[in-house]
Each structure stands twice: as structure tokens, then as C-alpha cells.
From TrEMBL:
Organism: Salirhabdus euzebyi
Signal sequence region: none
Coiled-coil region(s): none
Listed name of the protein: Nitroreductase
Origin: domain of life: Bacteria
Pfam families on file: Nitroreductase
GO terms of molecular function: oxidoreductase activity
Annotated InterPro entries: NAD(P)H_nitroreductase (IPR052530), Nitroreductase (IPR029479), Nitroreductase-like (IPR000415)
UniProt-listed PANTHER family: NAD(P)H NITROREDUCTASE YDJA-RELATED (PTHR43821)
Length: 161
């Protein structure tokens, strides 16, 4: 698939097969994530692989859609509020690169914001000075839904003089 096909085909997966995904493949896609733009090369992201005990403690309503792998992506705060904001944006770009690299090889993700709650942060052991960008289920899709309708970009463009 070319990049536009990957972008247009990618979905948030809500039902995974139980087939394992190798750690080597996941690390390969995470490495692709590191090519994300990040201001002043801060590389603010950190990745936590979540084991069964921690996953059970998080008690996500769908158990991360029964994905065989669950990981969290964190973003380190910067020296200023603005740098912290930039780091969060860079970490979201890291996640998107990871998601697209995995999708290009037939593996999907489910993005949950549960990690940002104080309870989840405590369970994950997130240190002060970090934000949780998301917790991700990773695996082979059992089901791929049709895309939801999107607003045309022409309705979102403003031309300034």
C-alpha cells in the first residue's frame, strides 16, 4: 500500500484476533514512530508495555478490545508550558507514525484515553512531569468497520490575506 492508501484504510480496531504480534515487529513500528517531527529533537516519548496484572488493575471496560498487546505512550514535560505542549504534539505524531506503520503490515490499534486519569496514572507508575498520550491495544483485526463520514476539508480551510 502507498501512504495515502494506508492513511485512508486505517481504522481504530474494536475487536482483535488472539494471534500474538511479535515484540520485534512492534519495536520496528515504534522505531518508525521516532521519525515523527519533534521540536528541538526533544524525543519526549516513552513506551510502557502493559502486562496482564497491570492490565487487570486498569480494568478497562472492553479490556482494550481483547488486544493481545497493550502499551502506553507517555510524553515528557518540557522546561516551559509551551515546550510541554510541543512535546505532547510530537508524541501524538509518534503515535500516528506507529499506528500507520503497523496498519501497513496488517496490524491495528485501539487508542484509549483511560491512561490520563489519576487512578490509571498511579497504576502505571507514571512519574511527575509526564503526560499519558494514550493506552493502545495492538493486534490483528478481527473486524474492520467502514469509515465514519468525515467533514470535507474544504469546510475547514480559511484563506487569510
Amino acid at each position: 500500500m502507498d501512504i495515502l492508501e494506508v492513511i485512508n484504510a486505517r481504522r481504530n480496531i474494536k475487536k482483535f484476533k488472539s494471534d500474538e504480534v511479535s515484540l520485534g515487529r512492534i519495536e520496528h513500528w515504534l522505531q518508525a514512530g521516532t521519525m515523527a517531527p519533534n521540536h528541538r529533537m526533544t524525543e519526549p516519548w516513552e513506551v510502557y508495555f502493559i502486562g496482564e496484572e497491570t492490565r487487570a488493575q486498569l480494568n478497562h471496560k472492553s479490556n482494550f478490545c481483547n488486544a493481545p498487546v497493550v502499551l502506553a505512550v507517555l510524553s515528557k514535560h518540557g522546561a516551559t508550558d509551551f515546550e510541554t505542549f510541543e512535546n505532547a504534539l510530537a508524541s501524538a505524531c509518534f503515535v500516528q507514525n506507529f499506528n500507520l506503520a503497523a496498519w501497513a503490515e496488517g496490524v491495528g490499534t485501539f487508542w484509549s484515553s483511560i491512561g490520563s486519569s489519576p487512578r490509571s496514572r498511579a497504576i502505571l507508575g507514571v512519574p511527575e512531569g509526564y503526560d499519558v498520550i494514550g493506552i493502545f491495544g495492538v493486534g490483528y483485526p478481527e473486524e474492520i468497520k467502514e469509515p465514519k463520514e468525515r467533514t470535507s476539508i474544504t469546510e475547514k480551510i480559511k484563506h487569510l490575506s
